């Protein structure tokens, strides 16, 4: 039977270096007492020779810092959310932090459990996107843990956040369709009780009203923010009058929509134009490539981590500009004429 090797302790390092355990601790923790350089080098050489690894938990108890951040997201399978998580992980690592992921699976009860779990682990800060923009801020604030929301929330909550003006972004995306001359423009949106859905519907309405177009409530197709949702709601849409253009309020819905349209021989953009919200690299490599709202994910991740690092209890909000990435799906590159 194979025996596991004995774990190396500070006592082993002290014996190898010919010093006391206390001196080893001063070297490992860089204090609180100074150590002569020659002695310090002996301890470092002993650490390397013995393969000693400092106990991170013990160090955290002494310093009050765990070198970890918690990230809570609604659904990591969403390409936009996974892209943001990747950028946050990369940025956190630059600052010597490890990112612990909590995926709530679009479930508010699970979201609360994840928050409690991460707080019990005494993470140094939380990065948080709530399922429906009704976050458990009180729970976090009671713990005194720094928190940065990755989405707009009610200003009364007095919490730091990085945001993009989603109503304005939805307006710009829909306006691009009206500028093509399209008049019959429908929207595929998320669940209507969600605040981000309401923002995106409002932006769609703003653009139609600015172009003196009628807002048809029957052309608001609500579904989940998933490929399946986009696919199924498009099949429902095809049972009625076909709009000339569509605004899908997330990338996954747009992918599902394209599948349903293709199955019915409806070409994008020749028969129906399409724009969407929250593009990732997948939008560019799709066929047709998607015209879509892009958020500056890397800049947002850098700012979010910096806000946690410099957190002093003051609620800050940082708003970012967005871009409208022009692809083939809106008709720009295919010169479609009405």
TrEMBL record:
Q: GO molecular function, one example?
A: DNA binding
Taxonomy, superkingdom: Bacteria
Keywords noted in UniProt: DNA-binding, Transcription, Transcription regulation
Among CDD domains, the record links this protein to: HTH_LacI, PBP1_LacI_sugar_binding-like
Give the Pfam families listed for this entry.
Answer: LacI, Peripla_BP_1
SMART domains recorded? HTH_LACI (SM00354)
Which residue positions does the secretion signal occupy? none
The HTH lacI-type domain, residue ranges: 8-63
Transcription as a keyword of this entry, yes or no, is yes
| Annotated protein name in UniProt | LacI family DNA-binding transcriptional regulator
